[in-house]
Amino acid sequence: MSGDFEVAVVGAGVVGSGCALALARRGVAVALLEAEAEPGLQASGTNSGILHTGFDSAFGELETDLILRAASLRDPVLETLAVPVVRCGAEMAPRDTGDAASIAAIAANARGNGVAVALRDDGVLEVPGESVTDPVAYTLALCVAAQRHRARLFTGFGVTRIEHGRGSMRVTAASGEAVSARVVVNGAGIGAGAVARMLGDDSFDVYPRKGEFLVFDPPTDGILERILLPVPTPRTKGVLVFPTVDGRIVAGPTAVDLDRPDWSVRPEAREEILPKASRMHPPLADAEPVFAYAGLRPAGRAVNYVIARSRAEPALVNVAAIRSTGLTASLAIAERVVSLVAAAGVPMSSPEALAPGPPPAAEGEPWWRRSADRLAV
Ligand SMILES: Cc1cc2nc3c(=O)[nH]c(=O)nc-3n(C[C@H](O)[C@H](O)[C@H](O)COP(=O)(O)OP(=O)(O)OC[C@H]3O[C@@H](n4cnc5c(N)ncnc54)[C@H](O)[C@@H]3O)c2cc1C
């Protein structure tokens, strides 16, 4: 047995790392259990890195509430943990006159959510509060901060079994290593359905929805100052074009439903992305991508943002199906998980001041390579 803890958090993505940090700051003994060799390699390290304002999120949904709440928590955390952020804002341009009504509806939605937007005379919607971060640095910063507050990280700890003991659960990895904890927080991303089923909870399932991206060196005649957003469809937000914290331009993502994890970039992704991206940012029409990567959204089947104590096992808190906005909402998700864990009987103190410190050095690798290279198949 590798230790007795009050809470075992399964999965060190941005959600699990955020939960571990919030719990550890309240004096809870936390084990953060990650299957991969490093935290943040899956969805949290292979996304668009955009910190959304919630301007286009559906009013009244839990996801929207948490996006809006996170916006009020984020700035001091970014500053204390020295996480890079480009406060560039975004704009959504109509493709044709038919888009004007959609953009007007999105502007009204933004105002309903209390998010500042401006509709220009040329029909373009400006969203000044949208920003871009380095999602790997963001996730690692939360994870390392959790450890500064005494959480213990176990990597290479792929949970395969969870059993009841007397007043605690025994959480066992494929390697045979085990920890015990009173409460299990399930932040296992695309593995969250499987983790819940280990405790007899089959109330939801999660599948991978792949999103592919192309990375460009900035064309000499094409400085990109803002995130460029397409007018969304009911199924997807579509292909966007955005600047990265390290001065590149990224275009994507696609949306491909899978039945098993596959981080490869399909040959046809280029044709699905490039025409749309160069319509929004014409200098990309002649540009060659320098890299491509894919991320897998942890998409729930007919559910989204499953954040609740399990009905099958009250000592299990699911934080699952955080499909599209988990980077943005992570701090508010963690706040909610703290109250669920407290309701499960784990004692807590008032939060310690966040211990400052930067994320681990990137060793010269841009974020979009760090996870993608390690996950490539
Ligand atoms: C293409 C794409 C674009 C996106 N764009 C954005 C964006 O711009 N802004 C935004 O806010 N969000 C975005 N998202 C969504 C965001 O990435 C996710 O919501 C978020 O990363 C989910 O975090 P997570 O911690 O739940 O999942 P993950 O990051 O996948 O973490 C889950 C972790 O659990 C581990 N794990 C799984 N099973 C086990 C097990 N049995 N034992 C131990 N560990 C296990 C995994 O290895 C993984 O590290 C995007 C996602 C994708 C894929």
CATH topological fold name: FAD/NAD(P)-binding domain
| Distance from first to last alpha carbon | 33 Å
Global structural class: alpha+beta
Uncertain regions spanning at least 5 consecutive residues: none
Give the CATH H-level superfamily: FAD/NAD(P)-binding domain
Please tell me what the overall shape is: globular
- Average pLDDT, rounded to a whole number, is 96
List bound small molecules. flavin-adenine dinucleotide
In total, the number of domains comes to 1
Helix fraction by DSSP (H/I, runs of at least 4): 25-40%
Name the CATH architecture. Answer: 3-Layer(bba) Sandwich
CATH class: Alpha Beta
Total strands: the figure is 20
Properties at a glance:
377 residues; binds flavin-adenine dinucleotide
What would you note in describing this structure?
With about 375 residues, this protein is α+β, with helices and mostly antiparallel strands. It has a single domain (about 5-375), classed as FAD/NAD(P)-binding domain (3-Layer(bba) Sandwich). It is about 30% helix and about 25% strand. It contains 8 helices and 20 strands. It has helices spanning about 15-25, 60-80, 100-110, 135-150, 190-195, 270-280, 325-345, 365-375, and strands spanning about 5-10, 30-35, 50, 85, 90, 120, 125, 130-135, 150-155, 160-165, 170-175, 180-185, 205-215, 225-230, 240-245, 250, 255, 290-300, 305-310, 315-320. The strands form 4 sheets. Strands 1, 2, 9, 10, 11, 12, 19 and 20 form an 8-stranded mixed beta sheet that branches. Strands 13, 15, 16, 17 and 18 form a 5-stranded antiparallel beta sheet that branches. Strand 19 (about 305-310) and strand 20 form a beta hairpin. Helix 1 (about 15-25) packs parallel to helix 4, helix 1 (about 15-25) packs across helix 7 and helix 2 (about 60-80) packs across helix 7. The longest helix has 19 residues, at about 60-80. The radius of gyration is 20 Å and the shape is globular. The two termini are about 35 Å apart. The model has no long low-confidence stretch (mean pLDDT about 95). The structure holds flavin-adenine dinucleotide. Flavin-adenine dinucleotide binds near residues 12, 48, 189 and 298. Flavin-adenine dinucleotide binds near residues 297 and 298.
